Amino acid sequence: MTARELDAAGVTDPVLREAYDRCRRLNARHGRTYFLATRLLPVERRPAVHALYGFARWADDIVDALGTGAGAARRDAELSALQRELDEGLRDGGSGEPVVRALADTARRYGIDPGHFADFMAAMRSDLVVTDYATYADLRRYMHGSAAVIGLQMLPVLGTVVPREEAAPHAAALGVAFQLTNFLRDVGEDLDRGRVYLPADLLAAHGAGRPLLQWSRDTGRRDRRITAALKEFEALTRGVYREAAPGLGMLDPVSRPCIRTAFVLYGGILDAVARDGYAVVHRRAVVPRRRRAAVAADGLVRVVAARLRTRGAGRRPDVPRLVPCDGPYLPVPEEVA
User: Fold this and answer.
1) CA–CA distance, 74 with 62 (Å, rounded to integer)
2) What CA–CA distances, in Å, run from 273 to 53, 208, 254?
3) Secondary structure element (H or E) that encloses residue 334, with its range
């Protein structure tokens, strides 16, 4: 976390500043697409977004990154410890875990409903025992806690120009759309973790199923039945993006470039999957660097326009700029000094 972001957010306590910085590093390492979009937010709102996503990443890592060798019992113990820290942090603001400390501070500053965090943790715990879903309705119930509540947590930070309850269903849908996109992109990797997020009834409608997916993963061979199921899942996901789209215009104008950029970049993953012939059982589809750059540049233009409108045409807007980077991902914006 840059000192400028923390100063703008009014975070002065050194321990708390370090906690927010840890969240930022988690977000940058694990969520590069959304991290890029986050840098288009007003500087004072970025720490809160990093706290929300940093906590989500940390909990998800407990479920996934420890690997099957850790065993469900150890992962359950880790989640239970995190739950205790979360309860303490939300109750009195204190926690020995920096990520929870930053999250609790963000929840207090923005008045975020603590029930959203409880629903999220319940979804994370279900990942320890649930490895597939019989129907899309079952998957959506899981995604309420794993994805929809993330959108709802974000709304107070982003701000709205309509009553928050009017924007809430669209924010929840956007969280679900992003996660469905990840599920489609990561079919092969999820199989390696022992999970299938494609609903069993959707697969069965095309003559496919978990055994066929595993055979395809193990042999590297394609099957038209799998491809047909993946195409239907893609169409289903695009429908959820359409549910979410009206919410973009309900956000505070200075927040819209960030969320619109994430909306376009995540939607671009679906395009990349289709371009790659729906080969997600075998490899992850990647949005071309040039496309990412074009979307980010458009986002910067929208940032300038929004901040000029809100701050007055005669003042220099607080606008990020793109800087070179040697990594395989799009360069991330750096604040103007």
Assistant:
1) 9
2) 25, 19, 31
3) strand 333-334
